[in-house]
């Protein structure tokens, strides 16, 4: 969680609050100089205070890499403890607010772009109407960033597609959402019978997400397992761009059917299933940080999120399987 220089959470007696904050600022900024710029102090002051902090603890906290710094194993223990205390303080304040009837509060969410339609139009619309005093901050990012933000307490809640496992993450809800081949209704692949084979796709241009996204990771796994390589006509970090790419007839793309439900309903796109076990095994997950207590506002939002069709299975699957 990024350090706030004006915030002074309680810390065990004997450890300097200022040194702790300088240490956390250096880790978050990635270098002593960047931390100094953010806190408006001299870099030598931060270096000296962190060195004193290391002497107090009896361990090395930072290792220098070029012009930057990285946290040691011991530093991560200090960071985890610091984040837990901040999270506990945040939860306490939220629960005190709840005594006034859940009037105010803030929830930070991170999610992949493929969740945006249902998230905005259904979940956040209804939640916002019922809880107008609760501010929801939503950031869209790739799956690795979603997991990292939740694990490091930068976000209360994450929605991720085919995320990697992480020891600090707890999965609250998960549902299979197979990756489909997304094409225009007049695409030649729509005339094939049965589920598509990977080799049926090789002759066609493909739109792909950039590395780091869950969809791209799955495609890379397929290429490795099948010893093939798809012909990319477009590589982008935008789900919307891939939808337009397929709808324009420039090529096909890969994504779960629910990510293109509106376009399928409008007759602009078709989702074709494959027989590939990797693509069939993809899932959508609702994730939180392990062992973190939730305020009533977060718990209420989690209830709404669990009911999303992408997680609960409510709503029709609009895939074609001849």
From TrEMBL:
Domain HTH lysR-type span(s) in chain numbering: 15-72
Keyword NAD recorded: no
Domain of life: Bacteria
Keywords for the protein's UniProt record, in alphabetical order: DNA-binding, Transcription, Transcription regulation
SUPFAM superfamilies on file: Periplasmic binding protein-like II, Winged helix' DNA-binding domain
Record carries keyword Transcription regulation: yes
InterPro entries (alphabetical): HTH-type_LysR_regulators, LysR_HTH_N, LysR_subst-bd, WH-like_DNA-bd_sf, WH_DNA-bd_sf
Similarity comment text for this entry: Belongs to the LysR transcriptional regulatory family.
Protein name: HTH-type transcriptional activator CmpR
Lineage: Bacteria, Pseudomonadati, Pseudomonadota, Betaproteobacteria, Burkholderiales
